Amino acid sequence: MKRIFFTALIGLILLTGCSLPSAATPTPTQPAPELMNFILTETPSPIPPTPTPAFTPTATPIPPVFPAICTDPQVIGVIDSLRNSMLTNDGMLLRSLVSPQGMEVRYFRYGTPITYTPYQAKFLFETTYQANWGDEPGSGLPKKGAFHDVIVPELARVFSQPYSLHCNEIRHGGASYDVAWPYNRDFYAIYFAGTEQNGYLDWRTWVVGIEYINGKPCIYALMNFFWEP
Question: Is 221 exposed, middle or buried, given 0-12, 13-18 or 19+ CB atoms closer than 10 A?
Fold first, then answer.
């Protein structure tokens, strides 16, 4: 009960600290912006995480820009609120977490980065805007789809399974590429170690870029890492 109250209190603080109101049209930043349409989406039931890694992974640590980020309970509150927004399709909550300077999202490590303002983030669980996330590894086919069809299910899948959090350290399973954070800035890795029956090849790591705006932590980037054939 204390954790729920604490998380809710932090979410309320972040709501005023991270987002700034804007009258801009909710269109994400891409090479060729388009207008967005809206649809209603279903609300999944939240599932509590069990932060216990399944096996010993490899890691890529970097020194923190703001050392306090690794001990600041506000940051854990941001990640908890991100989890809740993904599991409940809460656009207003997601908006409160996004940096006023925008949140850059990558579905693939080499994919097309798409930047959303806090105002645009409010509609990401409803919009039918077909973003181009880049080419699939292996097949090379373009990955296109709305945020709630591409990004949300993958984040929700990690948040719905046993995961662990790592400050400025990318935990990951077996990879055929260099697992690296492209920004020289702070982050938290949300790591799911995978399952034994799949040889741990179903591991997945979502990295959340965190920056401080007016003393409050906000999300400036989301990036996805996983095993590629």
Answer: buried
Q: Which one-letter DSSP state was computed for residue 103? A: E
* Sign of the CA dihedral running 200, 146, 182, 63: negative
CB 51 within 8 A of CB 130: no
Which of 108, 113, 115 shows the shortest CA–CA distance to 179? 108
Residue written as token pair 């077996």: 174
Residue 157's Cβ-count burial label (10 Å; 0-12, 13-18, 19+) is middle
Q: Which tens digit of pLDDT belongs to each residue from 178-200?
A: 767 889 899 999 999 888 887 77
Report the distance separating Cα 77 and Cα 128, nearest Å.
29
- Per-residue pLDDT tens digits for 33-46: 333 333 333 333 33
The tokens describing 17, both together, are 């600290």
Q: How many CB atoms lie within 10 A of CB 62?
A: 16
Model-level pTM? 0.72
